[in-house]
Design brief:
3 domains; five-stranded antiparallel β-sheet; 26% strand; two-stranded antiparallel ribbon; alpha+beta
Length: 294
């Protein structure tokens, strides 16, 4: 029973099936917006479908119980395939010490028997020349009236395949660690304020960080046509009252601190008693400013 289970888990077909299922479900996570409260999904998909989405945790699909289960099954599958590859490789390496018998021909599918009336010495010489041209210098073992010639190439080529399996396994392990013990959420930090509270996506849960992030300045650089060119946040990391790090967060340039990654998500006008609007004439370059109060 255990052998049948092991063969099933080490199947390459299972690997392809799991990759296909994970790819299809990842498309679902792209189509359904992630991290919104339940009311948002009720308004968009209706009460019945929103309950189904909530049961399968589609609002936070990549941390859902069934997606994590598929990921874990894929990791077990790759681990089983890796152990199988290692055992095959070890058998291949150990089989290099030939004792000279017919058992090797009974195991391989490419076996052919033919007869020749040529002298045995000619047969040995011709066989050696053939193996030398195809593979390499053969090993000749003579036992009674039987002669065995053995040659091989790429005995240690399986190391590369094992390395690929282990690399994939490490990537899956990292993904599982992030899915099970990691978290994702958002922090609202207005310019000139600080916070250490993370609100999880799709729920009311929060986490208090052991440090505080302060937004010292935020700016948006625009192209001449008015389209955004760059978003920039100048932040400071505080441990208690002590400033331990100052950094600038840009698009594709997040802040990484103590195993956490902080990216810019969105921006807007928030918490301002008044704000100033500056209009620039495209031809003359003259600017007019206007201060607006709420």
């Amino acid at each position: 029973m255990m052998r049948i289970l092991y063969r099933g888990l080490a199947s390459a077909r299972l690997t392809l099936f799991l990759f296909l299922i994970l790819a299809v479900t990842s498309i679902l996570g792209t189509l359904v917006q992630q991290g919104f409260p339940r009311k948002h999904y009720e308004d968009v998909y209706g009460p019945a479908l929103s309950l189904l989405l909530e049961f399968f945790h589609v609002s936070d699909l990549y941390h859902s119980w069934w997606f994590t289960g598929l990921f874990l099954l894929l990791a077990i599958n790759v681990a089983a395939c890796t152990t199988r590859q290692i055992s095959r490789f070890l058998r291949q390496v150990r089989s290099g010490d030939r004792n000279g018998d017919d058992r090797v021909f009974q195991r391989v599918p490419t076996t052919r028997v033919f007869q020749s009336r040529s002298p045995i010495d000619d047969m040995r010489r011709q066989s050696r020349t053939l193996l030398l041209s195809l593979v390499g210098e053969p090993t000749m073992i003579c036992r009674e009236e039987t002669t065995y010639l053995y040659a091989e190439r790429g005995r240690y080529a399986g190391v590369g395949m094992i390395g690929i399996h282990i690399s994939v396994l490490l990537i899956l392990a990292g993904g599982l660690i992030g899915t099970i013990w990691g978290f994702s959420g958002q922090m609202r930090i207005d310019e000139g304020t600080s916070s250490n509270i993370v609100r999880f996506f799709g729920s009311d849960q929060t986490r208090v960080l052991p440090f505080t992030i302060a937004c010292d300045d935020f700016s948006v650089a625009l192209y001449e046509n008015g389209m955004p060119r760059e978003y920039r946040s100048d932040v400071t990391v505080l441990e208690g009252e002590k400033k331990v790090l100052s950094a600038t967060i840009r698009v594709n340039e997040p802040l990484k601190y103590k195993g956490l990654k902080f990216c810019q998500a969105t921006y807007g006008i928030a918490g301002a008693g008044s704000f100033k609007v500056v209009a620039r004439h495209a031809e003359t370059g003259k600017e007019v400013s206007l201060t607006l109060d709420p």
